[in-house]
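> tool_call: predict_assembly(chains=two)
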Amino acid sequence: MKHMRVIFNEELNQVADDLDHMAHRVHTAIEGAGQALLHQDIDAAQQVIDGDLEIDALETSIINQCVQLLAKQGPVATDLRVVVSTLRLASTFERMGDLARHVAEIARRTYPQPALPAEITNIFVRMQAFVSNVSEQLITMLSSKDEALIERIITGDDQLDDIHRQIFTIINSDAWTGSKQQTIDTVLLGRFYERFGDHAVSAARRVGYIVSGFDPTKEPQNMHSAHEDTVLG
Amino acid sequence: MKHMRVIFNEELNQVADDLDHMAHRVHTAIEGAGQALLHQDIDAAQQVIDGDLEIDALETSIINQCVQLLAKQGPVATDLRVVVSTLRLASTFERMGDLARHVAEIARRTYPQPALPAEITNIFVRMQAFVSNVSEQLITMLSSKDEALIERIITGDDQLDDIHRQIFTIINSDAWTGSKQQTIDTVLLGRFYERFGDHAVSAARRVGYIVSGFDPTKEPQNMHSAHEDTVLG
């Protein structure tokens, strides 16, 4: 009969594999969402929308596995932090999948027209490059748990917020040619990208908690100023 | 020396009290946010913004207590579900507090002018009444764990989505007098209210999980159609 510790490690490896798989799916989803939004690619949009069901199913499976691990193994110390963080990371990734889907849904609805007026496209090219990169960093971070990378993901989000703020400046400028519907969509799309970045920060903090045992979910001063920026036009 | 079970129950009661306190704070926050938005009440806005730090601190405290309970007591069955759900409910309430703060921040920024043009105010009066009511239902649900109430919260969210959709119709109509900044703010505010409702549904599902042992986090068909509605102009 296998030692409990061996069983625990096997089960923990399984759930870690599923979480890694989920992070890959989120990365694929945000790449597809960008392709749909920036190149009016209806097939890419549909794939992201359909694929979100798999991301949702992975969340449910991972949470169930974590609850089973807690029930059967009663882990403590680092093992416990791994299980609790995995459970929370699964929910974060699920939301990131939703946000990629929301972007794809807007691209699908406006197809074959682009959702965005030309004067704002470059801003979204930059936000897309940012979130695509950060979603790749999350995959690396999950396996390496490298503290410098965790820190880079957390502090790097300011750049996305800076780009996001420019959306409001452009809409409010005379250069804006968008219809009311395009204004609505641009505001929503900007919010989705900004939230995607926020969730990447949450994910980094949750991995940071595994490493340090300290839950860095809140840095009230920074969090608040970042959030205020969100709603400043 | 106290029996482990007695200690466990005492600690569980403590964290349940904190969660109840958090739900009350969220209800107060959304009431204050509505007062700020609909009556240009700058003091109410500031209270919501300042008060969010306490909600954030409650989340951190509750999560720490839950991890301690898992480490020291290794709960199983219903006890385990209570702890896992409490941990997840704390994060849901924290987000609801953030959303109330976002509403208050917009009201503070546009003060003494209302953020909303007159033709959309009635929609927000109705959304405010809805979220104020649902945040009160969450408090009742936490203590009663009444399954009929849980179900009512989950299914009732469609009404909020219906009201939310009307925002886009009004902005796109000739009746809309809002400036571009007001259009931006209206879209963001609508999104914040809609998300507040989504989080109330999440909270209800998490309490449902305690009661039934089944995690009803996903109803893919409903979730997806609801989300598509979100982005339909």
